[in-house]
Queue: 3 jobs
Job 1
Amino acid sequence: MHKKTFVIIIILISNIAVLIVGMFIGRKSIEDNVFKQYNKVKYQVMLGHYTTYRDIAVNVREGNYQLAKCNAELTASALLDSLETCINDRGCKAFIEQQVKEHAPEVMDKNMLKFDYIQTIDDIKKCH
């Protein structure tokens, strides 16, 4: 009887140990995957911003001010649309609303915009 109880206890302990180790490894794997996915998105956004600002800088240097203005307004309009989507979602709004009020109140009220907003027509934004 004692031998059987001892074996059951050993099996339970080993199963619990395997479960704990598996949970630790799984958690670490999930954290690594989330971090990699976050970085992938972050760097794609950074690349998009870089190419936009690069194009604006090149256009200004070459004297193409209207094209530089167009690129700036297209980017600002697209980013404004994204921020408005966030503001219209309660969960996202709670996260960013205070920062928007402090740094970009025009996101909450387009009448306050200080640039020419470019409307999306047929899923496309383009300068006129």
Job 2
Amino acid sequence: MPSVSHFENAVFRYRSIDALLGEREELGRQTVYFAPPEHLNDPMEGLRQIYWHGDRITWRNLLRHYVICLQNRLFQALSTDDSERLDPQTISVFQTLDNLPTPEARSLCEACIAAVEAGELHTALLDLLACADRDIGFSELQLLLRTVHIDWLGTVYGVFVEHGLAQQGQPVSAESSSLVDVLRKFQHLMPQVREQVSDDGVEIIHNIRQIMSDQTTLLAAYQHADVLQPKRASLFFEFTTEYLTNLMKLVYPPWYVACFSGRHDNAAMWSYYADNHRGCCLVFRADDTETGRSLLLNGPTGYGSDGISRSVQNLPLEPVRYTAGEQRIEFFTNIGRLPLAPLARNWFQDNHGRTSPLAQHLNEDRQEAWGNAYWENFTPPLLRKLPDWQHEKELRIVLSDILNIRGTDEGRTFTYDYNTLDGIIFGINTNLSDKVRIMHIVNAKLASRSVPEPFKFYQARYNARTERIEAHHFI
């Protein structure tokens, strides 16, 4: 059983026995599943450092959008049991006044917006943001929206009461006059702070304030744990952060990845991804192209008369970069998920039809250049992981969901043939019965293999002399 130190042009995919032989039957069905980011093992994957640099028109429209999402959230809360947490993914960031289902729904939403905008607190926050003329980071905007959130929630609830959609109860509004004073003082002091500590210093200050705010929120929740049900926690304390996080859905489409590795001999990967060495490592043959390496997979490409259509695609395998840097992206000028007319109307125009100067990228003569830069910035953050992961030597296939075909497992599941799969490495702890089951499944499929190279089974073994895991193929 000779040792194999080199697999020519191979990429590897560690799998557990449960994934291969369990309910998903990945081996029998020959499937590769593309995972959404929330299923990946590092919450920092795909992160972009989002910031906002707006004018009075765009900031006013963002605050209006916040109220639209808040009133929709209140609707959800009123029909949800107190013991249930509101799902963060159901915040309706694609909702606008244009696409509400009925005239009555639009009338209610307009009443909520009018009630909030009539308050001095809204004016104070809009003045602060419009006069900033600088980048506003996530932490700062989160703190500012938290400042007004309870007051605005109470205002929206009051509109619901007036429309007979909620019962009059204990007011939830904060003391708005004191909050107005806070925002006015902050607006007055911030230029002086910038002169003394620079914009980077301002961001550090807001990050510290965010930590303090999170601690205060946690303490308040702990002290009221006996009455603070999950639904109320979602509505009162978590909505602002969840709203800002969900705004990224307006920028780029959802993305999904299938993960491979350039190595088959890493003990940590065998332990983590292959169930403590009880699983296997699939050996795939990659193709060399002018731009790098790729893998032939059969998967969804669009919609046909019979539903989702599928075809064989040569998908690029892209190496992951291990670096701590994050991509910075401005929100207003990178909203890419909305049709042009609704985008201009709902984000870049005021009530009188005046258009923000920030909308120049929507002009016909600039759309192509904007689109090229937009897509160039899409993939790099999805191919970045912290240096702690560099032992994985990961390669990824990244898919975007422009056509909205990947929202289900079917839309994210691809298949391979046995001209692409060249071998399987059994783990050090793979039990004999699982090996036999795997060999039976593979041998039944090898009749379809047309490439001259034989399919091979390997056994992983630890070599005490070299202190490495080696793959030995069966003769």
Job 3
Amino acid sequence: MKPLFAKLFLLAFVSMTAFSCSVKSELEDIADELEEENNNDARTEVIKLEANK
């Protein structure tokens, strides 16, 4: 019984770790995309302000 429990625990731990890493990676990708969009919007705003001078 103990070896089965140990295998199930190990499987659950590895699965949770892999899921956690994939979620973290996906969130970092989304954050990078949002940051890039914000930087592009800021550049556009600066260009508009300079054009209005």
